[in-house]
Amino acid sequence: MQTTAKLYTMMLTLAVLFGAVPAPAAPLVGCDLTLDRTILPAGQAQKTVIKINLDVPAIPVETARPPVNLALVLDRSGSMSGDKIAKAREAAIAALRRLGPQDLFSLVIYDHNVQTLVPPQSAANSEWIESRINSIRTGGNTALYGAVSQGAAEVRKNLYDRYVHRVVLLSDGLANVGPSSPADLARLGAALIKEGISVSTIGIGTDFNEDLMTQLADRSDGNHYFVESSLDLPRIFAAELGDILSVAARKVMIEIDCPNGVRPLRIIGREGRIRGNRVEIHLNQLYGGQEKYALVEVLVEPGREDELKKVADARCSYENALTNAQESSVAVAQVRFSQRQEEVRRSASKAVQKAVVDNEMAEVRDKALDLYNAGRKDEAVQQLKAKSSEISSRSQALGFGDIAQEAEGALQQDADTFAAPAPMAPAEKKLLRSESYKVRKQQKEY
Amino acid sequence: MTRLRLITTWLLLLIPTLLLGLGALYLLKGEETRLASSAKAAAGDRSTAIAGNIDLAVAEVKDGLLETLRTLPRASLAREADQLEEWKRGNPLVRNVFIWETGHGLRYPDPEMPSSDEEADFIRRYRALFASQTPWQGPPGDSAVNNSPGQASNILLERRELRELAKQAPAMADVSGAPASDAAPAVTNGWRPWFADNSLHLIGWYEWTGRPLRIGVEVEMMALLSRLLGNFPAEPPYTETYALLDGNGAVFHQVGRLEITPSSQPLATAAIAGLPHWRVAVYANSTDGATGGSFLLLGSLLVGIFVVAILFGGSLLLWQAHRNQVDAWQKTSFVSSVSHELKTPLTTIRMYAELLGEKRIEDPDKQRRYLQVIIRESQRLTRLVNNVLDFSRLEQGRRKFTREEVDLAALLHGLLDNQLVRIEEAGMQLARQIEASPAVVESDRDALEQIVLNLIDNAIKYAAAGKLLRVELQPQQGCWLVRISDQGPGIPSAHRQQVFDKFHRVDTSLTARQQGSGLGLSIARQLAEGLGGALVFCPGSNGGACFELTVPMGGEA
Predict the structure, then answer these.
(1) CB atoms within 10 A of CB B38
(2) Long-range contacts of B516-519 (CB under 8 A, 24+ apart)
(3) Do residue B197 and residue B90 come from a single domain?
(4) Residue B557 domain-assigned?
(5) Same domain for B373 and B243
(6) DSSP notation for B442-501
(7) What is the DSSP string of B352-364?
(8) Mutation target among B82, B108, B226, B251 for the A interface, most CBs of A within 10 A
(9) Residue B290 covered by a domain
(10) Which pLDDT belongs to residue B438?
(11) Which among A46, A174, B167, B205 is least buried, having the fewest CB atoms inside 10 angstroms?
(12) How far is A105 from chain B (nearest CA, A)?
């Protein structure tokens, strides 16, 4: 009896790992599925979380990296004057110097008027570009939408070449000319990702609209950075450049098909689509040496004791940015049903649970902040508390008391911040948004 | 009389000049208005052109999307949904896709189970439309939204017509030689602008007859508008700002440096037929019309300068003429005075000389007196001629002063002694108050003598009735003061300013009681100033005239 149990466990561990790989060469991006529990209690419908890991190895230095088509969109409105614009210029020049002659660089500056200061051209032309960057002066309002549009237009001029397309937006103020709602900018981001253009947003100071900046980045699969002091700008630019220069895969589509008897419920953290039994998640790019993942919660119908059940077929298709070849990798996840509570508990994966808790916390924080911003402070606190107890009880049930405790503590702290009579500091809001963005998108620490 | 003439002449100059200036200003104003209106018209044309371009781009997008819908292979509902979904995933201009069935409502996406928040939003947004509570809008094709009357300008309509024309050709070719599958199904299609969540959305659909399905698309407005911004000039003219105004009149996008506020008044606006209620507006960057008022300002400035120049020049000429006239008159009067002055002593000399020549005068006393008269008169003649000569030298600046040490007291004593007879003859008493000590100055003896002589002459001529001539010499700070005063009638206050002017005489008539050239005081002052001193008139306390001559001790101080 004992041996069979061991055998099963071994089999399961294998089963959850890779499925068949049809491509002759191993694909660049490794796709694998992990479950929060590999053994589910038999005889009852169960919710379980599938974690889809996309693992990209670090690109060796000698490998020719894909060329970059970068449009820098710099705010030069009146509020940027002084140290901010000086640091922004410095950072822009530092970024330019990291690009090679094969890369394209363009620069759009904006106040209430949008102007292309440097039309797209090889970054080798750095002397002239630097003189242009140094000529930037400040003054005026903030036409953010027009600026992003123009930045995208500059990138679009070379859209059909095999570049890594990226718009980097820097702003320190509220968009006060043109569309200014986060939803509108989110739609723009959603359209740009279809063209393979990602927008990374850098919010500087405490006056920008963090919702707008995170949503624009979110929908176009860029990064979002919150910089309180302009002194950090060069570091942020360096981090962003590091990401851009290490793009290994483009137009990444994760498709998860669930067999009958398994119903996807929601995607945790990321944006995506659930259509019937199919889940689709779109990423614009993967960076070398970074692991990204997606979390999908599914409802599994009751299973019989010892029954093995496939819960998901995952397929990750992408364009290899190094070879420009279309590649894909697949994986399968299976569960077994058991009556034994102990066995179920032992099969729980702490890593998956940690990721789930982190993402759920990020989500609930975002939601709470939305409520708070809408003036529904009490509801925000309630949401946080409800989520806290939910996460806690679920983690406890899985036997991860430490995760439960940690989450409870953190969320309690958040609830206290929201409940405080004094209004929340803008910097605090921005920090909260950017932190949860980092968690949901697995953006590298900066 | 002359003054009146002068004023009349000046008015004759002033009035036409001012009229000319006013006329020029009026014309300038007219030109300014014309420029402003033509700038406005040009701005209108430009906004219409931009609006036309945007409209064409929108129409192009609409056509393209409908064309894709049209060419979508017809299959089962699920297949078509998949194809639409694939399309949506790849096309940035597609926000949502749908399949709607008459009588059933929305078939795809499933209103019960939207696959994402966006789809749920989409279903909510168009609930009224999908529930057939609002019509899908009648007329097919682009004209559905082109019906808004008066919004599209002529240019736009023309371009649209041309475009329609261009589109027609291949369609007709299609009909003649295309396979039946392409031409066969008659279709209804349309676009519907939809206002929800305070913004404009566009939804288009395609329907085949005999099939109750409508396949449709919602345009990704933010992406479409983002692309449309390229229709604005990248480098607008320096004086203008172009803006795209959304349905609420807020600035959606602008090019140009003006900060547009709700109170900014556009020069011109043009409606965009494809985007209902959206407009292209052109603003002037400065607030005072198209030319910024600089034209009028510059013009007015020029006109002002011309008017002032004409007036100034004219006045200068008038003044010059007036002065020449006065000078000429003074010279005529001077010549007649001098001739008259010369004639008197000459007549006297000639008369006495003739008397003596005829030897009828036996009395030696008488003879001596006559001779003395002749000498005196010739001396007077000499003084007169000297004065005239000095005057011309002074006028031309050729008078040279020979400086030497002069004892002013001795000089005055000598001079007064010489003139004592004349003074007494005129019935005047001479009172000298001259410091005994030698008053040495470094100066021109002749000039000093002439000044004092001229002053004494004047006193004899005009103030003999005062019976007293007082000559004083006093030391002053660094100079000597010679004061010559009488008790005569004095100088009328109206003439006090001008007594030192050349040719000026209190009584200018030829029949004046006293003859004179009007040069004496003028010469005296010029000489005094030439010596570094001064000659001033100070009315005497008892009504007579008093002249004060200051002579610097060290010559030209």
Answers:
(1) 12
(2) B516/B337, B516/B341, B516/B461, B517/B334, B517/B337, B517/B338, B517/B341, B517/B384, B517/B387, B517/B388, B518/B330, B518/B333, B518/B334, B518/B337, B519/B334, B519/B387, B519/B388, B519/B391
(3) yes
(4) no
(5) no
(6) EE-HHHHHHHHHHHHHHHHHH-GGG-EEEEEEEEETTEEEEEEEE-SS---GGGTTTTTS
(7) HHHHHHTT----H
(8) B226
(9) no
(10) 77
(11) B167
(12) 19
B89 and A282 within 8 Å at the Cβ level: the answer is: yes
Give yes or no: residues B239 and B388 share one domain.
no
| B220 contact partners, CB below 8 Å, separation of at least 6 | A187, A190, A191, B92, B93, B94, B95
Q: How many domains does chain B have?
A: 4
Q: Are residues B33 and B164 in the same domain?
A: yes
Q: Are residues B363 and B494 in the same domain?
A: no
Q: Mean pLDDT score of chain A, rounded to an integer?
A: 88
Cβ separation of B90 and A274 shorter than 8 Å? no
Q: Are B384 and B405 found together in one domain?
A: no
Residue B101 within a domain: yes
Q: Which CATH number fits domain A68-245: 1.20.1600.10, 3.40.50.410, 3.40.449.10, 3.40.50.800?
A: 3.40.50.410
Helices (H), B147-239: 154-177, 180-183, 221-228
For residue A79, name the pLDDT band (cuts at 50, 70, 90). Answer: confident
Residue that terminates a domain, selected from B368, B398, B428:
B398
Interface probe, candidates B88, B112, B121, B222, chain A, greatest A C-beta count within 10 A: B222
Q: What is the mean pLDDT of chain B?
A: 80
Architecture of domain A2-61+248-348: Sandwich (2.60)
Nearest CA to A262 out of A328, A316, A294, A307 is that of A307
Query: Which one, of A223, A331, A230, lies nearest residue A285 by Cα?
Result: A223
- Same domain assignment for residues B217 and B240: no
On whether both B112 and B255 belong to a single domain, the answer is no
Is residue B291 included in any domain, yes or no? no
Residue B464: burial class (beta carbons within 10 Å; 0-12, 13-18, 19+): middle
Maximum Cα–Cα distance across chain B: 168
Rounded to a whole number of angstroms, the distance from the CA of A126 to the nearest CA of chain B is: 24
Contact B254 A188 (CB under 8 A): no
Domain end, chosen from B376, B398, B420, is at B398
Q: In the structure, what pLDDT confidence band is assigned to residue B444 with cuts at 50, 70 and 90?
A: confident
Instruction: Report in angstroms the alpha-carbon separations of B7 from B56, B306, B329.
Output: 72, 21, 20
- Mind listing the pLDDT tens digit for each residue in B60-96? 899 899 888 888 888 888 888 888 988 998 899 999 9
Q: Do A271 and B252 touch (CB under 8 A)?
A: no
Q: Give the span between the Cα atoms of A149 and A146, in whole angstroms.
A: 5
- The tokens describing A432, both together, are 């909260």
CA distance A430 to chain B (A): 24
Helix (H), strand (E) counts: chain A: 12, 16
What span, in angstroms and rounded, lies between the C-alpha atoms of B322 and B327?
A: 9
Concatenating the DSSP letter of every residue in A281-321 gives EEEEEEETT-EEEEEEEEEEPP--TT-EEEEEEEEEEEEET
Answer yes or no: do B259 and A112 touch at CB < 8 A: yes
Q: Please give the share of chain B, as a percent, with pLDDT higher than 70.
A: 85
| DSSP label at residue A37 | B
Mean pLDDT of B115-140: 81
Strand A164-171: give its sheet, edge to edge: A114-122, A104-110, A68-75, A164-171, A198-204, A224-227
DSSP annotation of B263 reads T
DSSP 8-state assignment for residue B266: P
Q: Residue B266: which domain range?
A: 234-284
Give the strands of the sheet with B468-476, arranged side by side.
Answer: B429-434, B468-476, B479-486, B546-552, B534-537
pLDDT at A353: 92
ipTM: 0.84
Considering only CA atoms, which of B75, B82, B83, B129 is closest in space to residue B106? B129
